[in-house]
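Troubleshooting: if your tokenizer reports a length mismatch, compare your output against this known-good record of 313 residues.
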Amino acid sequence: MPQPTRRRFLAQAAAAAAGVWFGPRGAQAASPSPNLIFPTAPRERIAVASYPFRNFLTGGDPHPDGPPRMDLKDFAAHIKAKFGINKIEPWTGHFPSTDAKYLEEFRTAVEKAGAHIVNIAVDGANSPYAADSNQRARAVVFSKQWIDHAVALGAPSIRTNMAAAEDGSPDENRAADSLLRVADHAAAKTVVVNLENDNPVSEDPFFIVKVIEKVNSPWLHALPDFANTLASASEQHAYQGVDAMFAHAYCICHVKDEENTEAGKTVHVDLARTFGYLKQHAYQGYCSMEWDSPGDPYQGTARLIEKTVRLLS
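Known-good structure output:
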């Protein structure tokens, strides 16, 4: 195994002091369970997702005013300069490349900024519960590839998605079978895998909880999103779902205070209630700011950070 450079050694030492775990550089022996060390200061628990800034990043939709788009590898330094936050959660749609050279450049840029990637939000097209076994196999391979990319980037976790299947409704057994194989690969690489309540059809929070419990792996956890389910279901279902997901959450959640529905209605999150679930379940992981409403994502993210620091205190 190559010896760490002085720069990388100093970055790792600083990360340890801040309560951050660096992901492995290569394949490791399977571990029985993850053992991430999280910071306790409220502001240090905050990360910023790249998704709200999709109009400003390579791979996203162009901003109507047409400013130059930022390369994802520069996002960490940018967020640190704008918000004083040194943790990011990049989205796969913003990666201009996943070849080894780019991933090394990305990791180096993040370390140079004194920042950390705490999770990678991964979106694929294939469903892990599709009736078609070939599609399920492709979904598994895709998630495994991003686990390997997380290793290269030093990220301790990924959020993989459960895309809806065209050939059937959500199937707990098929999903669990696929995700068990993903979780086994994650264990071998010491990378945590998370499932988010995003797609209202395939990622209902209670379906996710059933799948996680069926897989029963310490490497597969829930990623509670504060608003996604609220935008597509009743308040009772949404809040109970987030509560159920926090019982299985470990290292990452998505903080939003509002969300737009497909009908154009804006739903507002009761943040005090949702952070109450977080505290009831003794959740110690990161809170990723994923402001997702019309308007300026910089102002929206700044407000979310302020609210989150107050409610975590």
